[in-house]
Automatic annotation (TrEMBL), chains A, B, C, D:
It comes from Alkalicoccus daliensis. InterPro entries: 4-hydroxybenzoyl-CoA_TE, HotDog_dom_sf. The keyword Hydrolase applies. The keyword Hydrolase applies. Keywords: Hydrolase. It comes from the Bacteria. Pfam families: 4HBT_2 (PF13279). GO terms for molecular function: fatty acyl-CoA hydrolase activity. Gene3D superfamilies: Hotdog Thioesterase. The lineage of its organism: Bacteria, Bacillati, Bacillota, Bacilli, Bacillales. This is Acyl-CoA thioester hydrolase.
């Protein structure tokens, strides 16, 4: 399988993940082909991303403050089927920081340490009232850079 | 199959439905057993119920006013498997009106007019601020009784 | 709140659960009312039920053998809203054993030990080839009675 | 908003869609932010893609024959929030044909003809028995080229 364009060197890309979220496959997430439906990958990405942001103290800012985050784009590359009963580790990392957005990368491994999916997506900070994209405040920028 | 306790006479119960909502099965709603996952029945009930309430002009009251509705309980009896590609008709009716709640009944038929599921659930009106159950206002009661 | 008809004495009913499954709420399981969508309760029931059956060694029989199980009916009583971030314990028990079916009960508690939902449903053993309901084999009956 | 890399010229790209599938938003597909959860975009893509393949007579080949299709990758660009009650038109087209795969593009518009999402993904033909990617048979290739 070709390496996705958002991954320069797979080895170093993979080693760069330090946060992993454990996710159990729900039976209702399988489909009639017998495996986890491909749309569910993005549910796992979201779950791990939110827990990662909580662990960094970022979510509190967005829940309470005048700004929140929205998803600009999302993508997933499928390498191996996930079955009911699989115990997944979903890695999340901030791959790059823009003026008003961050690029978040994802790595999903099963209990045998086999890579099932990789992915990425852009998260944009917007003003709650207007929906306009908004530059990171200095404090937030510091938290993102330390992540 | 035994008739559920909420249905006295199946023939007249079935004839009493006049509102039906058309629902297309999504592939992601199937599971590894090859049919629509049993938890999805309640998604279809909800969809048809909300559209029914909209058609009666009830939803506007709850979206704008000081009261809203919550689900007290829900149940479903499964009679026939639903497959991807099935075109469903989901019937909804108000079976009885209480002081602060209504009992809503459901009937799901496929494109061959075969009954796939029946169900019911209690919907309770509550005050948005406190969550306390609240008697129907006279105007709403009139709308419910005409339904 | 009135006690559901499937619970005779709430105290002893609740004490009778010995198997609990831990479930984390996914953000995608919330809805626009701000809490977990009511249809998701049945996803949690299913997840805990399957894990319970695995822990009893029952699932292997149904995956490999000539018989499988289907859901006859399902119901849920809602007592308290579940929010994103809640860590749930979902209790499952076999409440009674019939000739071809079992009645399974459910209890959902949050991290503060507050009861969020109770429920029940009938699981029926059927022949895979014909779909006909089938009496429990002696070995299975023994496993169910010990559960 | 920047044009995604898979779209050369937005005007001509958009005009090139001739198949559209109507999709109604389910209430359970919203999340606590008040709009349709971003993971649901891929459910809509899948639904429209499968219906498109059925309309072309392709699905029958994959359901009955020795080959089937799997998702290689998927991506979505979000341009506008989707709300409960929105009536969506989901466009699907085959953007390019490879030796063993096709590139499928997506366009989601609401009832006001506003563009909500665009997307693409690679679909790969594999042998059911081995999972190995498999060149398109001549007959299928003809059907894909006419699409």
């Amino acid at each position: 399988m070709a390496t996705p364009v958002y991954i320069e060197n797979f080895e170093s890309w993979q080693e760069d993940f330090s946060y992993f979220d454990s996710i159990s496959v729900r039976f209702s997430e399988t489909d009639a082909f017998g495996h986890v439906n491909n749309t569910v990958a993005f549910i796992y990405f979201e779950q791990a991303r939110i827990n990662y942001f909580y662990s960094l103290g970022l979510m509190d800012e967005w829940v309470k403050g005048p700004y929140m985050i929205v998803t600009g784009d999302l993508q997933c590359d499928y390498r191996r089927q996930v079955a009911f009963g699989d115990k997944l580790q979903v890695g999340v990392k901030i791959a790059s920081i823009g003026r008003t957005s961050i690029d978040v990368h994802y790595l999903v491994k099963n209990q045998k340490n086999q890579i099932c999916m990789t992915g990425r997506g852009r998260i944009v900070q917007v003003e709650k009232k207007t929906g306009a994209s908004t530059p990171w405040q200095n404090e937030l920028l510091g938290m993102l850079e330390k992540a």
